[in-house]
Amino acid sequence: ASPATVSRCGMVYVDPKDLGYKPFLDSWLAGRERESPAEAGVLTGLMGKYLTPCVEYVVDGIEDKEKMLIGDPLKQIVPRTDLGLTMQLTR
To answer: How far apart are CA 23 and CA 29, in angstroms?
Structure first.
């Protein structure tokens, strides 16, 4: 569709690669917060500490951002995005 068509319909297209997994994770953690605030606090800490480095390693091959250790991304039989990996983890 042309930009004029898109603006008339009021649609905004956002590529999932540009959006990333953080909005989904924030929404999921907010849902956990309503069910169990104590659990949500623990999960927030764990996700903050482990999820980003793991996703960066699997998807982008980044081993250590601070030391700039960048290798090849892991080979996957079925390619996965960072959002897909996060969704699978939270189910």
So the answer is: 10
Verdict on whether the full-model pTM lies above 0.90: no
- Burial letters for 50-87: b for 16+ Cβ neighbours within 10 Å, e otherwise? ebbeebbbebeebeeeeeeeeeeeeeeeeebebbebbe
* Longest distance between any two alpha carbons in the chain, whole Å: 48
Distance of CA 66 to the CA centre of its chain: 20
* Residue range 47-89, pLDDT digits in tens: 989 998 888 888 888 777 777 777 888 888 888 888 989 999 9
